[in-house]
Amino acid sequence: MDSLNGLKLDDLSYLAPELTLVLSAVILSLLDLFLPQRIKRSLLGWLTVLAVAVSAFFVTWRLGTDEPISLLHDSYRIDDFANLIKLVLLAGTGLIVFMSLGTVKEEEIQHEGEFYYLFLPAVLGGMIMASSADLITLFVGLETLSITSYIMVGIRKKNPLANEGSFKYLIQGGISSAVILYGMSFLYGTTGSTNLFEIREALNTPAAADSFGPLIYMAFFLLLAGFGFKVAAAPFHTWAPDAYQGAPTPVTAFLAVVSKTAAFAITFRVFMSVFYSLMEGSSRTPVGHDAFLAMAAVAATAMIVGNTMALKQNDLKRLMAYSGIANAGYLLVPVATGYSLVHYSTFEEMLFYLIAYLFMNVGAFAMIMIVEQSSGHTRLKGLAGLYYRAPWPAAAMVLILLSLAGIPVTGGFFGKIFIMFGAIQNHQFWLAAVMILTSVISFYYYFGIIRQMFMRRGEEEEDIKPTLPLSITLWLCAIAGVLMGFFPQFIIEWMGQVFSFMSDL
């Protein structure tokens, strides 16, 4: 491992993806300030997409390196775990900004330029979280993402739903950050370090088990509650429906995909690096299976609450919020069941579902934007008769919904299957049963959307003509979901080649 005592000039090349986003955000904000008003701010949107693409290029350049690179006294770690997560974050951000081009209305968002380039510091925070190997660095990335997200949710300042959603998101987000800090303070107090690897070594001692067992339990449950808020898992989900409904639809897609992926990345790294090693085959361990059982209970609660509450939603964005809560439960299952040497419980399978989740949700929100443009609202009835007014977008939406529901053969189906088999091979049969039951429940509201599009007559009779970026994004996501279902083994094998669990975490 290339350990560095400090950040030198030559080491800045390792931070090229992050520096690209920082410099781009500064340059675009200055351009927005000095460009004449007659120049359309959609130009800043295209430049934002370009900045994200350049950052993704630098991440890909570092992908598959032999050993992780540690910077700033091992507090910032560039490894394949982080790089794969960063690619998901950047892909999601790029698609979201791209599909929003040409859809921003001045009467709703007065500062269109800000709307575009605020995505850059937000995804930067997620990338910092993915590479964090230190509690302080982790919190810096978390707050960079969170504070920017608060602003983006409330950017429609004249919209009462946006004001309500952003206020609830801000208050509950601040509380969750305080809870996370409190949990971190217990880890620091018991070990004297904020570095994840040093914490793991310090806790893997008889002295830690004898003296600090209750404190380690407190740290575990506080971090579980704090991260549970960030991934919007029940019972820490109450902010999500209002924030999703009030935010501009591209921002809602960002919260559902990018923010959630970043939160899952750091949840996976912290719990697997620090706590799971304490549970693994040691009688002196201060954190037992009951702690991870609590995480499994949170996962099951999220699946049940998310899918059952989605049944009675009439607003598409609120429905997707509860769908996201349910998916947070599915994604918590690999962490709750723990890593072992069986095939279906590795990081690759979890990342496969995250990638499928990205395409499913971005595609669904692209369809919601099309409906919002044509009807002026996001209620479910806006989809009525969509097949007769826009047959091709309706067909793409069917493919996306099949993947969301987990119907063979789609990316969503194999993502859930991989996670479910992991739970079974780790003897968590009850958790696998909850996954199956709640997935069946989800069929009702996903197929309810299809029923609206094909079997209901809408009030509007005019044909819908979505913008080109929206159409491209919708079909790209639909086709990607199908291809992931037909060729899952190639994606899993590729990720397995570039990622080594034991060396990267």
Query: What is the multimeric organization of the chains shown?
Result: single chain
Shape descriptor reads: globular
Main beta-sheet strand count, sense and barrel state: 3 strands, mixed
Q: Secondary-structure element sequence?
A: EHHEEHHHHHHHHHHHHHHHHHHH
Number of strands: 3
Low-confidence stretches: 1-5, 340-345
Total helical segments: 21
Distance between the termini: 13 Å
- How helix-rich are the residues, as a percent range? over 70%
- Gyration radius, rounded: 22 Å
Integer average pLDDT: 86
Structural class: mainly alpha
Strand share of the residues?
under 5%
Strands side by side in the biggest sheet: 1-2-3
Q: In summary, what is this structure?
A:
The protein has 505 residues and is mainly α. 73% of the residues lie in helices and 2% in strands. A hairpin with a 4-residue loop joins strand 2 and strand 3.
Task: Summarize the structure in words.
The structure is a single chain. It is built from 21 helices and 3 strands. The model is unreliable at 1-5 and 340-345 (pLDDT under 50). It has 505 residues and is mainly alpha-helical. Helix 3 runs antiparallel to helix 19 (468-486) and helix 6 packs antiparallel against helix 11 (249-279). The longest helix has 32 residues, at 160-191.
